[in-house]
Design the sequence.
């Protein structure tokens, strides 16, 4: 039992896990360091635009996840 | 402030909230924890969305976040990012927690821990220490509420009286309608906060720039105060490492009221649907933060940064908007404090007093409701009135502990071999490190104390789990039928059905 672990069991599940990890990486160092500039995008600071891009990307990934979960019927 | 309208509007909000809270009972009997604790697991996706959203958007959004923007700049957006990540956490774990509750009858987080590890002592330990952080959080929100009443009344309602008024209102509808009151009032408060935040934010932008373009505010900041647009912020104290570790620690802090809210859903699918759209609510933060940025050049030298929105509103906005701001800020603090107060009463009764004194389910349900009153009158009210300087420290330690309970959840969702002693050892080791690195040597190397705690906690948890007896196989199987419906993976080999 010591080596048993819960991991994704399908390609879609692994894809979803990768997307979750990418979202977390996007909001933390070192990615956040690359965007740390005092510039404006559409009049809004780049860091704020990036924060909301991550926020809405989270919604997109979860919408995709809902389709996968409901298609595969894993409640 | 000479006009009475801000106070009238703010008190009008309080009156509406009480009516909504009392009506939320809607004829349901509140004599079981299934009803009073988790609203009969009946909440639909919209109510659940607003319940979780309003619960997570505290007075911090209306006072603390603009204050951070005013004093540090864009560093404040770590909060928006971790709140979005909490939605991912709710999306994955929420449906499984709901199934645990529905199939095994859990109404609290600590009950689930006690059941998974077959250890009422571990459940009680989790309930008690989580209560420290929860009470500190509720006290801070209550102080915020009382401060709003003080400002809106022009000083006529002193802090002590404000604390009593706010707690008395919450006590009445929490006692009568329990979790149903939290659901309905949070839905109202959540909608109110969204409207007020944008109304105040856009009006402030208009008064500061003559238009509705936030870009004009940021262009001025970029020209005169560019240090507010990058990390480590204007004060130089939000390093990349503190940003990153604060997000990670906050993401893994499974606070008990959130767990209870997941169990209030009408189905597992409801949680997933609500969590999916939850991040959209956090657009509520943007307009308030913009007011903080306006304050950088229009209100320099404020003694208390977290009063920037109130100060700006009272100087520049019409009294009706000032009143709505008071109502919105009060809504934010009340909607965050009431789930924590409810959760402390629920979990202390269910997970500490019931196993200790072998109480019946019926008496436990009655006791949980009554326990609200001494918790509010003898703990929260005196602490809020005294406003101890160490309160924020208690809160930080409490939240630091919340993340240290992570091993208990790893054993519930990912690793069947996790043992009771492994979890206890990990929690104790992680907690001691977190306390030391919060109080004695604050956040060494710019890394969050809770993260240091986890770095010791997790290896200790794994090592002790491997050398101590696992939980009974039938219990583990019962949990992992939900956590891993498609089977477990043997590391290095295939899937085990």
Sequence:
């Amino acid at each position: 039992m010591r080596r048993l672990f819960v991991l994704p069991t399908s390609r879609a599940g692994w894809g979803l896990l990768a997307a979750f990890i990418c979202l977390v990486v996007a909001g933390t160092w070192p990615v956040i360091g690359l965007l740390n500039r005092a510039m404006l995008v559409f009049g809004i600071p780049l860091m704020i635009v990036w924060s909301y891009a991550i926020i809405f990307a989270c919604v997109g990934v979860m919408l995709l996840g809902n389709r996968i979960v409901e298609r595969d019927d894993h409640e | 402030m000479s006009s009475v309208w801000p106070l009238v509007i703010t008190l009008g909000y309080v009156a509406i909230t009480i009516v909504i809270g009392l009506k939320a009972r809607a004829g349901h009997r509140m004599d079981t924890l299934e009803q009073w604790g988790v609203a009969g697991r009946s909440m639909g996706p919209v109510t659940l969305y607003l319940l979780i959203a309003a619960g997570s958007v505290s007075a911090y959004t209306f006072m603390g976040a603009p204050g951070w923007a005013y004093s540090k700049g864009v560093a404040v957006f770590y909060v928006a990012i971790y709140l979005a990540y909490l939605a991912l956490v709710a999306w994955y774990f929420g449906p499984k927690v709901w199934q645990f509750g529905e199939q095994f009858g859990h109404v609290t987080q600590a009950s689930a821990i006690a059941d998974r590890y077959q250890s009422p002592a571990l459940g009680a330990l989790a309930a008690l220490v989580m209560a420290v952080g929860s009470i500190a959080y509720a006290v801070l929100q209550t102080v915020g509420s009382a401060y709003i009443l003080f400002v809106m009344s022009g000083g006529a309602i002193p802090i002590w009286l404000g604390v009593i008024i706010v707690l008395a209102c919450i006590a009445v509808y929490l006692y009568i309608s329990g979790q149903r009151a939290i659901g309905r009032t949070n839905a109202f408060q959540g909608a109110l906060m969204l409207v007020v935040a944008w109304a105040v934010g856009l009006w402030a932008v208009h008064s500061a720039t003559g238009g509705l373009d936030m870009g004009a505010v940021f262009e001025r900041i970029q020209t005169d105060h560019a240090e507010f647009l990058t990390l480590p912020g204007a004060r130089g104290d939000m390093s990349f490492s503190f940003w990153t570790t604060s997000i990670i620690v906050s993401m893994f802090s499974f606070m008990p009221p959130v767990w209870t809210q997941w169990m209030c859903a009408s189905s597992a699918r409801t949680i997933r649907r609500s969590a999916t759209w939850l991040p959209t609510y956090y657009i509520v933060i943007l307009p308030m933060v913009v007011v903080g940025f306006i304050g950088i050049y229009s209100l320099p030298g404020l003694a208390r940064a977290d009063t920037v929105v109130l100060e700006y509103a009272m100087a520049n906005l019409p009294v009706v908007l000032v009143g709505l701001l008071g109502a919105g800020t009060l809504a934010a603090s009340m909607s965050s404090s009431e789930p924590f107060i409810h959760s402390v009463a629920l979990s202390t009764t269910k997970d500490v007093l019931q196993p200790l004194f072998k109480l019946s389910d019926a008496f436990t349900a009655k006791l949980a409701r009554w326990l609200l009153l001494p918790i509010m009158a003898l703990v929260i009210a005196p602490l809020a009135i005294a406003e101890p300087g160490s309160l924020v420290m208690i809160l930080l330690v409490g939240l630091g502990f919340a993340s240290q309970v992570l091993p208990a959840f790893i054993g519930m969702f990912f690793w069947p071999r996790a043992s009771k002693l492994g979890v206890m050892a990990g929690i104790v080791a992680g907690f001691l490190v977190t306390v030391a690195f919060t109080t004695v040597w604050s956040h060494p190397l710019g890394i969050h104390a809770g993260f240091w705690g986890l770095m010791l906690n997790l290896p200790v948890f794994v090592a002790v789990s491997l050398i101590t007896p696992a939980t009974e196989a039938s219990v583990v199987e019962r949990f992992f039928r939900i956590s891993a419906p498609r089977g477990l993976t043997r590391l290095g080999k295939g899937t085990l059905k």
The domain at 5-389 of chain B is CATH 1.20.1730.10 (Sodium/glucose cotransporter). Chain B has two domains: 5-389, 405-482.
